[in-house]
Amino acid sequence: MKLENRLPAEGINASREHPLKEFAWLVGGALAVVATIVVAISYGAQWIAPRIPFEYETKLVGDRLTIEPKTEEGRAVQAQLQALADRLAAHMALPPGMKVKAGYHEGGMVNAFATLGGHTVFFRGLLAKVDSEDALAMVMAHEIAHLKYRHPAAALGRGVAVGVVLSLVSADLGRSAAGGVLSQAGMLTLLSFNREQERQADEEALRVLAAEYGHVGGAIDLFDVFKRVQSDQAGASMPQVEFLNTHPLTANRVQAVRQWAVERGKAVDGPRRPLSGAIAAARDAALKQKTDESAAAK
Amino acid sequence: MGAFIELLIFLGLLATGYFVGQVIERRHYASIRVRERRYRDIMAFPMRFAPNAVAAQDAYLVSGTVVISADYFKTFVAGLRNLIGGNFRAYETLMERARREAILRLKEDARRRGSSLVVCVRFETTTISSGWAPAMEIFAYGTALVPRAMPERAAGSVPPGSVSASLSRG
Which residues of A fall within a CB distance of 8 Å from B100? Predict the structure, then answer.
């Protein structure tokens, strides 16, 4: 019997493949799978939402989203917003049973949103920024278009489904970092899907604007407002990345408006309608308050 | 913004894990290869009994133990690998290093005992931590054989209380 102690063999028990190769394959594959699942769920939710009767949505939310302004002025503004919403909705062929409910929130945010049950909410901060009914109508038509396409319902279903899938993935990976990265990738995919909905809502809003006012000047006015607000807030310090934003960039939206109008032979500009009584009064009051505040600050 | 910072931190950890882990691994392999040559005269075998030709020996338990941890990069790759299964390549080098290191430590123990033949070498592993940074203990042990001391030398040279001392007296 011969006893011999040779050196351990190299390259048999440990792979010589470069570690980054496996890393690239696994990360690429996992991101592709998550993105595919999220996109499939998103389209599924978007497909199914309009097929769910609107009354289920109304039952689901009940009175929880109804807004009651506290002041007499607020109620007057809300009534006039409702009148405008009804006028715009008349152009829109809403799904059966859908009734748009315009809500007025006396907060200072420059914002408006549409949510479940046909509710839309417009903030006083937004009214303070618009100069004509046309610009306000653009926001309103945009929000009503979200309702028409059942985006809030789709977002709810999508949010729940994607949340369940991503939490399954994360739970499966335990505390490992891989789960976190996959969730992030899923959220980014969701954002880009939201932008598609915003484009759809913009397009419908332009159609309504052209039908009601004969031109789409209100859209240009509105995006000018957004541009001013953005440069006020950010100080234009950080370049915006479209991929990280739910809404398309303002510059792209203005361009899309012009392109849309030219392609369909609609006027880009025309006479603007003034804001109606109570809304104009609320706007002036908000502007005055702001001037007083800045004077007091000085 | 929060998500962006989280992503930056994650990428930082990943890059640190990768580059530092690679440097450490390369150095460890280099050191292992040098020491494997240095300890080449010590033979270690898995067979249970000593070959007949070397039967008259004193025997000691010798051991080498290593605790080794995965780095952030390896853990991340392994986490993804967990989804689809297959070869845990990221951990293979880690475990190979640990086993070779454990054998080297066992041989060092044997050399200190004056032995150049270890039989019945066995490995044990224990999971120390299985969270996001798994760590393992690799334990190698065996029976080191030392040429039996001559009776007249035994009194002076054999450490008191050791197995060989009691054996040579008995």
Answer: 8
Cα–Cα nearest to A122, from A196, A40, A222, A194? A222
Residue of higher predicted confidence among B169 and A289:
A289
| Cβ–Cβ gap A5/B87 under 8 Å | no
Q: With 0-12 CB in 10 A as exposed, 13-18 as middle and 19+ as buried, what is B107?
A: buried
Residue A245 has what pLDDT?
Answer: 55
**Residue whose structure tokens are 């025309």:** A270
Provide mean pLDDT across the span A78-107.
89
Which residues on B lie below 8 Å from A26 (Cβ)? 77, 80-81, 84
Say what the ipTM of the complex is: 0.72
Considering the entire predicted model, what is its pTM?
0.60
pLDDT tens for residues B5-42?
877 888 898 999 999 999 999 999 999 999 999 999 99
Q: Could you report how far apart the first and last alpha carbons of chain B are, in Å? A: 77
Position B30 scores a pLDDT of: 96
Reading phi first (left if > 0) and then psi (alpha if -120 to 50, else beta), residue B85 is in left
Helices (H), chain A: 19-48, 54-61, 72-89, 124-127, 133-148, 151-172, 177-213, 217-234, 250-264, 277-297
Q: CATH topology for B2-169?
A: Translation Initiation Factor IF3 (3.30.110)
Put simply, whether B89 touches A (Cβ < 8 Å) is yes
Across the range A23-33, mean pLDDT stands at 88
Residue B110 has pLDDT above 50, yes or no: yes
Joined tokens for residue A239: 């370049």
Asked whether B107 and B42 are in contact (CB, 8 A), the reply is: yes
Q: Rounded distance, CA A217 to CA A268, Å?
A: 5
Contact between A118 and A102 under an 8 Å Cβ cutoff? The reply is no
Q: Give A163-182 as a DSSP string.
A: HHHHHHHHHHTTT-HHHHHH
